[in-house]
Q: What sequence folds into this?
């Protein structure tokens, strides 16, 4: 057979190589790096080709494609969300992603993104809190202690200086798992029996539960003045975590309004309910927290630009770490018009 | 490190394995098999979740995602179109695709699709001609002799009984390449100096040129009564091959009207110009060719369901051929809530 040309190969980061890469650099360092990359891309937000993700819903879950482009590089993520997977011993969310050169359309990176999505989601949450949470916040409530929880905890420690985390989950085993994984990381951990107990004394409340349904994790009377709420779990139509009354007295910050109005907590509100785009807070075009008593809410659903930033980051680490394989994914005959001849000659 | 579980692996068909698979089964047999698969899926067209492809356009080309689902299996293709690539020695069109289980969202196949797209495009063209071309057609004009041309030629031979092909390309070297590749395949081949010469005596006219611009490959006076036109090259906004007058006197058949009205030859026409959906001809809900003198036109732009059929076909060949690798693409911890623990334990 003919050997494929260099163009035929796409660098591929397997799950194994992603884990090696993250451990080699260090989880908290990766999270901080990602905050830098995401902020860089949020600062040039208007440059991006943006579209709500393309979702294919079924009774049990959703499969989504999340593309974006900055005009030079194109990226997309494939991601599913299947709350029922856990009972089958499978991940609720799995993902992979790709970067391509806009000039040629040729892919330049394929990578696992289950782990990378967990990292970028936590980095985005911590970035938002960096801009919105009350000054000097040291205590966070972490409601929902599943696959995303440790990443959230470490991101808030590394980026926001959180020192104490109060954990709650409907399943005490999830809390125990999360606490065991976070042991020795310099965070004071307290297991709580109710959401009410978890939010006692917390300046930041992170909700990260996975039910695909309207659920009320937080009610209005639970949320005190000055708190920052980081709502991660309301991320598809029909899935929310917060009572409507909380939204009515919060200043709401979102990633991309056309997507958040369909998928986020604000799907409970009127279509013109006021929101501020997070990127505008970062560029100074929008206002962040206005007072120490204001309740701020980051209604996070995840947006393609965050994945793009994460993909750019991994692409930038390839040469330095060597943690990738070359995948024979692109047919690239010597004469580009001779695809059929390449096939014949491979005999 | 922990070994990934079976769920973590996604069967991957490389370019090399795709070529082996096609040669092992035989090109014409694969084309005929694909027509069967595509017809099966066209017969159950209403069952599919359909959306126009999600395109990201730039000055030099386009990158597209083409998703669809039949409720049990989800598929999508990544494909680019960059006419300027050829001058750089690169493919105009490259692609890869994925199938996933709707019930879990876990991928079940990743495959190269540059070669597979060439095959499914030719199979779709021949399938349409099987239903629309005049009875007893033996001669085809093939205008545009690039990467797709040989696949078209063999599909029309295998499925429609074409015995003679009259070739034309602005570049005589492309014609020579195509003829050399088709030698000994039982088709009478004639190189022509003009499009006019190529269509002499042809009952089927296939146009498959690649310029990303409005071009007039065929003018009205060139198209005689009773001809079937298979127009492949007009497949993105601003790119057409046929003069408007031809469209005015043709019965036009399309894949998915919302997409074809943007991308196909009919982007030149009013938004309500009458068209018939090809799947309805196959199910009998729509009428195909009405008379021997009618001009029929398949305004082909390619649709996600054809890729889905092709992906299903390749997925069905995995066990039999063994022509795939296992890709460590999905993070799958023993406890699905313990993604972070999996990362820690990989140290």
A:
């Amino acid at each position: 057979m003919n050997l494929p040309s260099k163009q035929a190969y796409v660098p591929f980061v397997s799950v194994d190589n992603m884990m090696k890469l993250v451990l080699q650099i260090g989880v908290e360092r990766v999270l901080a790096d990602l905050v830098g990359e995401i902020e860089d891309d949020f600062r040039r937000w208007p440059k991006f080709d943006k579209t709500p993700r393309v979702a294919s819903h079924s009774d049990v879950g959703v499969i989504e494609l999340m593309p974006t482009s900055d005009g030079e590089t194109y990226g997309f993520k494939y991601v599913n969300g299947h709350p029922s997977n856990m009972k089958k011993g499978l991940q609720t969310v799995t993902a992979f992603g790709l970067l391509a050169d806009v000039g040629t359309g040729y892919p330049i990176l394929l990578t696992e993104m289950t782990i990378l999505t967990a990292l970028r989601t936590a980095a985005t949450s911590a970035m938002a809190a960096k801009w919105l949470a009350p000054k000097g916040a040291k205590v966070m409530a972490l409601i929902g202690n599943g696959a995303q929880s440790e990443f959230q905890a470490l991101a808030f420690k590394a980026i926001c200086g959180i020192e104490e985390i109060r954990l709650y989950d409907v399943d005490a085993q999830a809390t125990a798992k999360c606490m065991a994984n976070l042991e020795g990381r310099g965070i004071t951990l307290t297991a709580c029996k109710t959401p009410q107990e978890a939010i006692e004394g917390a300046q930041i409340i992170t909700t990260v539960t996975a039910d695909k349904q309207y659920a009320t994790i937080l009610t209005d009377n639970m949320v005190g003045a000055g708190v920052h709420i980081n709502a991660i779990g309301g991320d598809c139509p029909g899935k929310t975590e917060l009572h409507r009354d909380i939204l009515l007295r919060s200043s709401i910050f979102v990633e991309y309004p056309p997507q958040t109005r369909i998928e986020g907590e604000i799907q409970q509100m009127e279509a013109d309910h006021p929101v501020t785009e997070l990127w505008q807070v970062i560029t100074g075009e929008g206002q962040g927290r206005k007072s120490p008593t204001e309740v701020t809410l980051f209604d996070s659903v995840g947006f393609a630009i965050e994945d793009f930033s994460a993909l750019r980051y991994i692409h930038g680490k390839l040469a330095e770490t060597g943690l990738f394989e070359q995948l024979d994914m692109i047919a690239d005959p010597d004469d580009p018009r001779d695809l059929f001849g390449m096939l014949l000659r491979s005999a």
Q: What stands out?
A: The domain at 6-115+305-341 of chain B is CATH 3.30.1780.10 (ornithine cyclodeaminase, domain 1).
